Amino acid sequence: MPPSTSRSVPALLQTLLADDPTAPRLTFYGERYAETGERVELSARVLGNWVAKTANLLEEEFDAGPGTRVALDLPAHWRTLVWQLAVLSTGAHALTGARGDADVLVSSDATALADGPADRVAVSLAPLATSFGAEVPAGVLDYARVVTGYGDVHAPLAEPAPGDGALDDLAHGSLLGEAAAAGAAWPVGVRLLTDAGPADAVRGPLAAWCRGGSVVLTPDLGTLPGTVAEQERVDARLPRA
User: Which residue from 225, 168, 206, 234 is spatially nearest to 11, judged by alpha carbons?
Assistant: First the structure.
């Protein structure tokens, strides 16, 4: 697959799907992989399915779209990338970390969810989670309980303007251009190993996908066995900033 020239996140996901729907695009190793063996692999089809369901949730529950500010108070995790892609797919503005001025707060921290905007979502990071696990504060949506009920296909209700906020300080019009530039030195079809956090999504996962590649994500590179990079056929690394 040649480098992508997609101008939007939905178009980029469609490009990955059209290239090879079953090829791994995101592989996640849990924080205590040596103890738990947690490894999750998402193909282009499965990744797109999760993103579509989450984007539909955002639109149907919170009327998310261009100008909506969605704070993602989540760590380096495969579900965090799903949420980022979903927010960007709706044309909304993803903010990394808890933000008091956001319209929607998405968090894995029950304490953070106890107070905030009216629209809040609790996200469990546990493998195979079917609920948040802890008690969900009143008025907070339990993502794991409801996400499977949303549609598998997403079409944005509105297109963002080029200058609309996309991810932190980047606008939708420049987001994928920045990602393509960040990954320009990597080989086409790169297999990127990274523990970069959510704020580094542009120079990490998005950059790799713009190169027609895939991502191996872990919260901490130092905890992975040395054999993982060879097993995963990694040819580029990006440590957290």
Answer: 206
